[in-house]
Amino acid sequence: MRRRTESGSCSEAPGAINSDIENPHKVYEKAETFWSRCTQDEDGMLGGIPSLHGPDVVGSTNFLKILKKNLIVTKFDNALDCGAGIGRVTKHVLMNSFDSVDMVDLVDELVATSADYIGTDDGIGEKFVEGLQTFEPPIQKYDVVWIQWVSGQLTDQDLTSFLQRCIKGLAPNGTIVIKESVSAGGKTLYHDSDGCWTRPESLLLKIAQNAGLHVVHKTVQTGFPKGLFAVKMIALKPVHPVEEDDD
């Protein structure tokens, strides 16, 4: 999972690892090691900048309200929090809107901590411990799949494949939301410390398009300190709408 928000500590120099590499296992191992060692609290989930929590929650909540108002999201039965960690987004954003929220994260210790952090099992569905590069969401279950600060942990191909599996996990009229830091200047930046990439928005949208998705609404997160990457919230729908019992 990824919570890369700072614009420093990255590389585009020769020798930096590209996001289209064919064998990313060492990068994925580095990410798992990094996140298993981070503190199991909001500070750890937000890369040492806990002041992001308030404006992040407000921005995400308002984005969901817009999606509801514009009839982009019309049901609020089930949501999936991808890269959920201790459940920060689950608790403060998704549980306020959805009847049940499932969580998936790579690090078992973070998922285990979520019970104490969230403080209740009411409204929590299944908890999956698995990397998104292999995770297969339950078929046709989710009204919203929420992917925040974690898409950069996957290579271009693995992200494409994951989004395709997420489409299969959508209920009819379901929506995928990607909330992600984006780089400027059209360049993908690699962060060696936690084994992740920050992509330009154009590449992120191209990957979504290749997966069979199109943008229905997007906006930029506001209220963050200067010196951080811009953060975009992007709502996506399948090009071919999901129908009941559609294979």
UniProtKB/TrEMBL annotation:
Task: Output the Gene Ontology cellular-component terms.
Answer: cytoplasm
Coiled-coil stretches are none
For the protein in the UniProt heading, the enzyme class is: transferase
Q: Which SUPFAM superfamilies match?
A: S-adenosyl-L-methionine-dependent methyltransferases (SSF53335)
Reactions catalysed: N-terminal L-alanyl-L-prolyl-L-lysyl-[protein] + 3 S-adenosyl-L-methionine = N-terminal N,N,N-trimethyl-L-alanyl-L-prolyl-L-lysyl-[protein] + 3 S-adenosyl-L-homocysteine + 3 H(+); N-terminal L-prolyl-L-prolyl-L-lysyl-[protein] + 2 S-adenosyl-L-methionine = N-terminal N,N-dimethyl-L-prolyl-L-prolyl-L-lysyl-[protein] + 2 S-adenosyl-L-homocysteine + 2 H(+); N-terminal L-seryl-L-prolyl-L-lysyl-[protein] + 3 S-adenosyl-L-methionine = N-terminal N,N,N-trimethyl-L-seryl-L-prolyl-L-lysyl-[protein] + 3 S-adenosyl-L-homocysteine + 3 H(+)
- Gene Ontology BP annotations: methylation
The UniProt entry, under InterPro entries, shows: MeTrfase_NTM1 (IPR008576), SAM-dependent_MTases_sf (IPR029063)
Q: Does the keyword DNA damage apply?
A: no
Q: Which family does it belong to?
A: Belongs to the methyltransferase superfamily. NTM1 family.
Do you know which PANTHER family this protein is assigned to? AD-003 - RELATED (PTHR12753), ALPHA N-TERMINAL PROTEIN METHYLTRANSFERASE 1 (PTHR12753:SF0)
Q: What is this protein called?
A: Alpha N-terminal protein methyltransferase 1
